[in-house]
Amino acid sequence: MSRSGRPERPRSPGTLETLASLLDELPEDLASKAFTHSSWVERRSDSYERLAFLGDVVLSFAISDHIFPRFEGWGAGRLTKLRAQTVSRGACAEVARALGVPDRLRAAAPDGVGKNAEVLIESERILASVCESVIGAAYLAFGIERVAPAVVEAFAELIDAAVESPEDHKSNLQEGLARRAEVVAYRIVEARGPAHDRSFVAIAEVGGEEIGRGRGRTKKAAEQEAASQALERIEEDWPPAPGGGG
């Protein structure tokens, strides 16, 4: 029996559940609330905000419980930084996109708020909050035993990327380009090696022009290295932002 009182669907032994599969199993009331923005209802408590509050704690616990035994030689400070980078707003928004949150928000939007829905979908803050609300809803429905492994699976590449590139170069690059009204895009241009020892090459592009290139053992790590190279180029070759002193 689940925490919500709904009988759980039998699962095959050894089946690896994902956050997406748990989302598909959510009871209708929780699924609806997880994708309801506060501007769409009269009472804020009927929106996803309370679920996001809970999901934030569940996400933090799941990642902490995973990295604590994995990195036995790391101190509390280093573990805290790894967790913070892994569960950052950008990371949660990325997982939200992988879960199909934008399409689900469009479908959940009431009649007459189409434009408003599109604005929300473009907001990294909103996508991150909905990601947390999905985790919170899944926790209420299925409990920590099922949700924690699914959360770790959803954030696995982000954990690896944070380990390989402790600094979030992608966020720093995005912020720097935003001041110049520029947008960066990443593209994987090379993948080599067997499944257990892969190597990727990513490029960072602005307006179709390559501004950075990086290699890593995961796609995310390669993108972080490409962002790092792009940041060096910006500092060396680009003029300062208008009116800025640095």
CATH architecture of the largest domain: Orthogonal Bundle
The level of helicity is 55-70%
CATH topology title of the largest domain: Ribonuclease iii, N-terminal Endonuclease Domain, Chain A
CATH class group of the largest domain: Mainly Alpha
Mean pLDDT across all residues, rounded? 85
> Could you list the spans in which at least 5 consecutive residues all have pLDDT below 50?
4-14, 238-246
Distance between the termini: 58 Å
- Structural class of the helix and strand makeup? mainly alpha
Please give the largest β-sheet. Answer: 3 strands, antiparallel
Q: Give me the Rg, rounded.
A: 20 Å
Helix and strand element order: HHHHHHHHHHHEEEH
Q: Trace the largest sheet across and list its strands.
A: 1-2-3
Note the beta-strand portion: 5-15%
Q: What is the CATH superfamily label of the largest domain?
A: Ribonuclease III domain
Query: What number of domains?
Result: 2
Strands, count: 3
Compact overview of the structure:
With 246 residues, the chain is mostly helical. It has helices at 19-25, 28-34, 49-70, 76-86, 89-98, 101-108, 114-121, 124-142, 144-154, 156-164, 169-178, 219-237; strands spanning 184-192, 199-206, 209-216. Strand 1 and strand 2 form a beta hairpin.
Notes on the protein architecture:
The protein is mainly α and 246 residues long. It folds into two domains: 19-164, Orthogonal Bundle (Ribonuclease iii, N-terminal Endonuclease Domain, Chain A); 169-237, Double Stranded RNA Binding Domain, CATH 3.30.160. Helices cover 57% and strands 10% of the residues. The chain contains twelve helices and three strands, in the order αααααααααααβββα. A hairpin with a 2-residue loop joins β2 and β3. It starts with 18 loop residues before the first helix and ends in a 9-residue tail after the last helix. Mean pLDDT is 85; it is low at 4-14 and 238-246.
